[in-house]
Amino acid sequence: MDFYHGSIVGGLTELIPFAKDSSNLKESCVYLTTSKQLALHYILDEKGRPPKSPMLKIREDGVIVFQEMFSGALEYLYKGLSGYIYHCFGTYELNKEVKVITCATSSIPVPVKDCEYIEDVYERIMEYEKYGMFVYEKYEDLPQWRHDIIRRFAMIWIKDAMTNPNHPEYDLLQKRYPQYWKEAVVLYKNGLL
Q1: Is the distance from CB of 28 to CB of 18 less than 8 angstroms?
Q2: Taking 90 as the threshold, does the pLDDT of residue 9 lie above it?
Q3: How many Å from the N-terminal Cα to the C-terminal Cα in the chain?
Q4: CA torsion 75→78→79→84, rounded to 10°?
Q5: What beta strand segments (E) does 73-186 contain?
Q6: Residue 74 in contact with residue 136, Cβ under 8 Å?
Q7: Whose C-alpha in 21, 34, 38, 82 is 20 to 30 A from the C-alpha of 45?
């Protein structure tokens, strides 16, 4: 079966298991997906990236829905970013614990069959929209109940960052969620956050 893995790192001949705090799983593993399109969304520059948030959804028909957590999020994350989609072949089993329907994991290194260079990840993602394979839900167009959910997540992240000016996302959260940051300052000063 064909699997894909997105990365900003080039020249890999095998994918090595690793663990990250932001991963659903805590043990070291290689994340793979049967969706080449989804692999694009995992080509990320970790520097200056907003906290992990529920922006992606994969519908049962395979269409990926990207819901912005802040205005311009898709462009902010991917515009001008280049990277690689690694193609692997194997009998890896889909892992339901990851909570991504097309995701498999491997606890051992995964050999790379071939690789495709992506010059601009944003442009490639948007190509899928032309074919009805990608839905782009812009922050400004979301219903109020979705904004309420986003606010709830943002306030949790802000509370964590505002008590620590050395927090790696301190400046980023102020910039991306200015209205929530101002609200959090008032709530914090009054012991309500």
Answers
A1: yes
A2: yes
A3: 49
A4: -160
A5: 83-89, 103-106, 110-111, 114-118, 134-137
A6: yes
A7: 34
The answer, yes or no, to whether residue 66 has pLDDT greater than 90, is yes
Phi and psi based region of residue 48 (left: phi greater than 0; alpha: psi -120 to 50; beta: remaining): left
**Amino acid at position 21, single letter:** D
Distance CA 66, CA 154 (A): 17
Instruction: Give the residue, 1 or 20, on which the prediction is more confident.
Output: 1
Average pLDDT over residues 10-15: 95
Confirm if 79 and 122 have CB atoms less than 8 A apart: yes
Q: How far is residue 108 CA from its own chain's centroid? A: 23
Q: How many CB atoms lie within 10 A of CB 2?
A: 11
| CA neighbours closer than 13 Å in the CB half-sphere of residue 182 | 4
- Tell me what percent of the residues of the chain surpass a pLDDT of 70: 93
Range 105-121 average pLDDT: 95
Contact 30, 39 (CB under 8 A): no
Beta strands in the chain (DSSP E): 2-7, 14-15, 30-33, 56-58, 64-67, 83-89, 103-106, 110-111, 114-118, 134-137
